[in-house]
Write a sequence for this structure.
């Protein structure tokens, strides 16, 4: 892991930095590159602009682990309201939730109780509900959560992270229930005992896991989603899908708002199913630091924003 990436990931955990940066106008200007605004309406407005380009969207409210300012009922009701607004606007938009916002630290059963109504509301509109994966300490609980939700509702997807050593075994476990899997590389500060320090190893495992998902998809045993901005990996996996006969629409490509926008449009124009993940909310500092850590050169964008 580079020194810059490590520093940014450490900074993402600082409450003091978060309180300072979220009050700075230049930081708020800089974050708009990756986030259209803090309100749900900002995210849905952005989703509306992408729809004509045949780019679907996913929205998620930022924040991890419950604090005194929110409770699980409030988060559940917020997402139910968001789904209602998506239906009202007739948007091709899905929702992704963080389990620790919905009670995972309390218990898996409490989290199931809170997420199940959101999943049911999404399924009623024919949409998947996505479950985010947080840091490695939550993997076992999140797998259990997903299995319980999936047993009652097939329209639920889960994020897995290719930089964790354990992920191939986790994927094999989940293939038994024909999962929808969004594969990402991983963006948390993880020790070398659980995650690859080298990008090349993470990339190699990503490709291997992607091929496994496509092979399962060929038999109707998985719905693969490739959440990456790495165009080399995307091109290799798109080629593998064609080789296996996995048609566009039987897998998706997901990217973040504000990153590789031209490539998102080009892939959609080629007939691929593309979704853009749009984040919103005022608790954006940890998430933004992890986005910068993915490409530390973007720090210069923040510096320039301070003088605009």
């Amino acid at each position: 892991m580079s020194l810059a990436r490590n520093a940014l990931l450490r900074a993402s955990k600082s409450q003091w930095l978060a309180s300072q940066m979220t009050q700075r106008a230049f930081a708020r200007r800089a974050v708009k590159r990756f986030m259209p605004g803090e309100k749900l309406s900002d995210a849905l407005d952005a989703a509306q602009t992408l729809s004509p380009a045949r780019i679907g969207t996913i929205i998620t409210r930022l924040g991890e682990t419950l604090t005194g300012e929110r409770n699980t009922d409030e988060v559940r009701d917020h997402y139910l309201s968001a789904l209602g607004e998506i239906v009202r606007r007739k948007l091709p938009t899905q929702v992704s939730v963080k389990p620790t916002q919905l009670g995972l630290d309390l218990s898996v059963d409490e989290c199931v109780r809170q997420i199940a109504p959101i999943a049911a509301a999404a399924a009623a509109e024919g949409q998947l509900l996505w479950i985010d994966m947080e840091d490695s300490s939550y993997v076992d609980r999140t797998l259990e959560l997903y299995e319980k939700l999936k047993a009652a509702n097939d329209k639920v997807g889960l994020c897995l992270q290719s930089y964790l050593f354990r992920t191939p075994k986790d994927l094999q476990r989940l293939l038994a229930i024909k999962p929808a899997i969004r594969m990402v590389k991983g963006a948390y500060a993880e020790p070398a005992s659980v995650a690859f320090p080298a990008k090349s190893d993470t990339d190699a495992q990503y490709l291997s896991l992607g091929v496994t998902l496509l092979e399962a998809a060929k038999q109707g045993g998985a719905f693969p989603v490739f959440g990456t901005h790495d165009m080399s990996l995307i091109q290799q996996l798109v080629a593998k899908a064609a080789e296996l006969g996995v048609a566009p629409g039987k897998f998706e490509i997901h990217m973040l708002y504000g990153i590789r926008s031209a490539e998102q449009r080009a892939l959609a124009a080629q007939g691929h199913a593309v979704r853009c993940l749009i984040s919103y909310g005022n608790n954006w500092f940890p998430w933004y630091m992890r986005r910068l850590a993915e490409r530390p050169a973007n720090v210069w964008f923040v510096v320039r924003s301070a003088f605009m």
